[in-house]
Design goal:
Number of helices: 7
Largest sheet: 6 strands, parallel
Distance between the termini: 15 Å
Number of domains: 1
Number of strands: 8
Helix content: 25-40%
Strand order of the largest sheet: 2-1-3-4-7-8
Order of helices and strands: EHEHEHEHEEHEHEH
CATH topology: Rossmann fold
Structural class: alpha/beta
Shape: globular
Length: 196
């Protein structure tokens, strides 16, 4: 039986923030039902290397056996990198599988989804940084739950499914990239993490 979760990390996607609907939903649930769990949802810098530095510094003292990470889209790619390094549990929500390829077309100035006045620059070298973070086969696929929507309009569900086929997969008919029906999936996510 896995240890109860004491620390939970949430990672938002590209151009997103801790203000995303899913991040706020999980934050609200944790505050009201599991205030004893240390919750952290940082704003990630545009640089993938910088993002991983922030994350690995932030979780340096976290207990590996009782921590977990949840990541959406690009955050799912980062969550995989964190979980492989920390050997912890991970929940991936429509995870990016090959962001080095997919984000190449976004090189240049970008706006934030939740605050269009906020701008950042996605540099060409960030593509190489994403490539450097790619993991091979998962060391402990049983540690992962992948929630994949066939209706994802941004990422190919078949690619996500192939990448995470050996893990616990929740394959949704329809749905969308944002998982607009996220509330419906929260109970099974929390159950996987032992937080119901």
């Amino acid at each position: 039986m896995p240890s109860p979760i004491t620390h939970l990390l949430y990672l938002h996607g590209f151009r997103s923030s801790p203000q995303s609907a899913k991040a706020r939903t999980v934050a609200t649930h944790m505050a009201s039902h599991h205030p004893e769990v240390h919750w952290w949802c940082p704003q990630l810098p545009p640089s993938p290397r910088g993002a991983m530095q922030v994350l690995m510094d932030g979780i340096r003292d976290w207990p590996r056996e009782s921590m977990a990470v949840v990541g959406s889209s690009l955050g799912g790619f980062y969550a995989t990198a964190v979980a492989e390094q920390a050997s912890c549990r991970a929940v991936l929500l429509n995870p990016a599988v090959n962001p080095a390829r997919d984000l190449e077309k976004y090189i240049g100035e970008q706006t934030s989804w939740h605050d269009p006045a906020e701008r950042f620059f996605f540099k060409a070298e960030f593509v190489g940084e994403l490539r450097d973070l790619e993991c091979g086969p998962l060391a402990r696929p049983e540690n992962y739950l992948a929630v994949i929507a066939k209706g994802d309009e941004v990422l190919d569900w078949r690619e996500m499914h192939a990448r995470y086929a050996a893990t616990h997969v929740r394959l949704l008919e329809g749905g969308d990239h944002a998982l607009s029906d996220f509330d419906d999936h929260l109970p099974s996510i929390l159950a996987f993490l032992g937080l119901n």
